[in-house]
Design goal:
By secondary structure, this protein is of the alpha/beta class. The chain is about 45% helix and about 10% strand.
């Protein structure tokens, strides 16, 4: 196997030959793959290796958006334990790996994109690392294959590389802060400032800050030139721009009162989340807090060596930074227990946000006289359901002698229709989170376990099973498969 041969097979789009002929994978198993609803994508199994299946997804209309990619992942997770996906479009190819989060809950999509006629060196290196030789076949295990493929295609290398350099710059930047004698306070405030600046780096790339993709560095040059004759010109950027930007521009919905400050900051949005509020350490050391412009110059040189993507959609480069990397940095530096500050991982915050925001949005839609999302979800299949909620619905537990005319609380005669009905019922149950939006049922109140099993096994309506004292969301959360 040579790099040039891998490159040629990629250009020729011979992905089956690439996996089976060159990388040492096995022929794919026979799988029944349902076509994604309302989609022009075509999915084909390419190869298999100890539980990991490679799929080709043809995209005649171009690479799909993130939401569509998640739909494909959910579909393929029912057919294979672990998946490596190749989305092939006329102009670009995208290799996608659903990386399990460290918490074990949920996944993130790690991908590598390159022009179809010019495979990137990064992808070629990953393919070499995910290849297997004949000599190691006898000793290969499922966990070894999964670990090698995961290490080849995940983003940990970029994350750790950035973190190592970040740690050095953190120490250097903390040493540049004047006016804070306590070492722990100085390190903590350095973390606060670096978190703010990295946040700004993400949003400036999208033109959210006065339409300038190099907002921070550009304002550094403007501030130094404009305040060159001031009393402390070496601190001009800190005094006349950054502090007003944090606390008057991004941290306050009102416009800065000083016209010079307002002109220097430009048009920026109000960020309402506490990131730019006055910090406790700032309040404590405010009068003597100073940072020289040279400290920010060194920091921006480091930041400018990376590509910042707010949309979490990597483009194939080995120097890309997305919000997942920022979360990793937060996890290392923000767990300051002495200050009562802890980093909350994405799976937890995602669940909290979904549980709070989605019901509030649904209430507002209903109050405005629009369709109830809970009812609309009943026809969405399992698009919005976690995989665990649908586990077991494809198995027919009805005795063979049971007639198809049994009541709805017993399994239906056709597994496929029962499974579809069950998923509709679960979607409805997950959407109806408040007691006032569900109906009562004396039967369900008398037999809660039977009611839960009815939802799982035959798709009985969640509206008929829930009671005001036991909302449908609790039915969905308490489903069992006995």
């Amino acid at each position: 196997m040579t790099t040039e041969r891998l490159r040629r097979l990629l250009i020729e789009r011979d992905l089956a030959g690439l996996f089976v002929g060159e990388m040492g994978w096995d022929n794919p198993p026979t799988l029944s793959l349902p076509a994604p609803a309302d989609s022009a994508l075509t999915t084909t199994p390419l190869a298999h290796k100890k539980g990991v299946t490679a799929f080709r997804i043809d995209c005649p209309g171009g690479l799909p958006q993130r939401a569509e990619q998640h739909r494909v992942v959910r579909m393929l997770r029912r057919a294979s334990r672990d998946q490596l996906m190749v989305f092939t479009a006329p102009e670009r190819h995208q290799w996608l790996w659903p990386e399990q989060r460290p918490s074990g809950v949920g996944y993130r999509l790690v991908d590598h994109v390159y022009p179809s006629e010019s495979p990137s060196e990064a992808v070629l290196q990953r393919l070499e690392r995910a290849s297997f030789s004949i000599s190691e076949e006898a000793s290969l295990t499922s966990s070894a294959v999964l670990d090698r493929v995961r290490r080849s295609f995940n983003a940990e290398k970029v994350t750790r590389s950035f973190y190592r350099e970040f740690a050095k710059h953190h120490r250097s930047f903390a040493g540049s802060i004047e006016g804070i004698d306590d070492g722990s306070d100085r390190d903590w405030y350095a973390s606060v400032l670096l978190n703010r600046l990295m946040f700004i780096y993400f949003i400036q790339q999208r033109g959210f800050l006065d339409g300038d993709a190099e907002y921070l560095r550009g304002r550094l040059q403007i501030a130094r030139a404009e305040f060159a004759q001031s009393e402390c010109p070496e601190y001009a950027y800190w005094e006349h721009f950054l502090l007003p930007l944090f606390h008057e521009g991004l941290g306050d919905p009102a416009q800065p009162r000083n016209p010079t400050t307002a002109r220097l900051i430009g048009a920026v949005p109000f960020i309402n989340g506490g990131v730019f509020e006055m910090h406790e350490i700032e309040s404590r050391y405010w009068d003597g807090l100073w940072i020289a412009d040279s400290a920010f110059e060194r920091l921006f040189e480091f930041f400018d060596g990376w590509r910042w993507h707010l949309d979490e959609h990597p483009h194939g480069d080995d120097n890309e930074i997305n919000p997942d990397v920022l979360g990793y940095i937060f996890e290392q530096y923000v767990n300051q227990k002495d200050y009562g500050a802890y980093y909350t991982k994405p799976d937890v915050t995602g669940y909290m946000a979904a549980s709070a925001i989605l019901p509030a949005v649904a209430d507002r839609l209903v109050a405005a006289g629009l369709d109830d999302p809970a009812l609309l979800l009943a026809g969405s299949g399992d698009t919005y359901l976690h995989d665990a909620n649908g586990h077991g619905v494809e198995f027919d537990t009805r005795p063979a002698s049971q007639p198809a005319s049994q009541p709805a609380s017993q399994p239906a005669s056709q597994p496929a229709s029962r499974s579809a009905a069950c998923r509709r019922g679960m979607a409805l149950a997950m959407a109806q989170r408040r007691p006032r939006r569900v109906c009562g049922s004396a039967a369900a109140a008398r037999a809660p376990c039977a009611a839960r099993r009815a939802v799982v096994r035959c798709g009985a309506s969640a509206r008929a099973l829930a009671t005001p004292s036991r909302p449908a969301v609790r039915l969905a959360a308490g489903m069992d498969h006995r």
